[in-house]
């Protein structure tokens, strides 16, 4: 199972993004893709702050994930937060990044697909919690 980080989704939908072609290749060749409500919240936040898109257009992007075969299963956020508390003691990263790692583990992902430099720099530590970074 592949957990898709928000930055990969944004790169996929934005043709001008420097990582757009990489995102296309990764998402076209991946099976079993999931993301979490954490990523959906981040996606909506980024799009509302950095674009002139209206609410309906932003919601349409979030709804589009199903069309590109990225599932957004329901997640028990209490479990995500509890697991994140443990991860935060082992890996020094920003809170939102820790929440992504936790959610991906709760969703039984093996691979964490991201273009985020901080995740890539912490690749070995993240492997210690059972996730492989794909970039």
For the termini, the CA-CA separation is: 15 Å
Average pLDDT number: 95
Strands of the widest sheet, in order across it, are: 3-2-1-4-5
Q: Give the number of DSSP strands.
A: 5
Sheet/helix structural class: alpha/beta
> CATH topology, anyone?
Rossmann fold
Radius of gyration: 14 Å
Main β-sheet description: 5 strands, parallel
Label the overall shape: globular
Which CATH C-level class is it? Alpha Beta
Quick recap:
This protein is of the alpha/beta class and 135 residues long. The protein has helices at 6-13, 20-28, 37-50, 55-64, 77-90, 95-106, 117-121, 123-127; strands at residues 2-4, 33-34, 70-71, 111-113, 132-134.
What is the topology?
Layout: E1 2-4, H1 6-13, H2 20-28, E2 33-34, H3 37-50, H4 55-64, E3 70-71, H5 77-90, H6 95-106, E4 111-113, H7 117-121, H8 123-127, E5 132-134
Helix pairs in contact: 1-2, 1-3, 3-4, 5-6
């Amino acid at each position: 199972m592949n957990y898709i980080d928000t930055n990969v989704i944004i790169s996929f939908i934005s043709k001008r993004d420097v990582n757009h072609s990489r995102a296309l290749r990764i998402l076209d060749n991946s099976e079993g893709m999931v993301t979490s409500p954490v990523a959906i919240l981040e996606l909506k936040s980024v799009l509302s702050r950095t674009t002139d898109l209206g609410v309906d257009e932003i919601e349409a992007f979030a709804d589009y994930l199903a069309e590109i075969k990225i599932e957004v299963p329901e997640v028990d956020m209490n479990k995500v937060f509890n697991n994140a508390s443990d991860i935060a003691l082992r890996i020094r990263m920003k809170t939102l990044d820790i929440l992504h790692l936790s959610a991906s583990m709760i969703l039984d992902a093996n691979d964490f697909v991201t273009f985020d430099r901080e995740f890539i720099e912490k690749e070995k530590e993240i492997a210690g919690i059972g996730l492989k970074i794909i970039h």
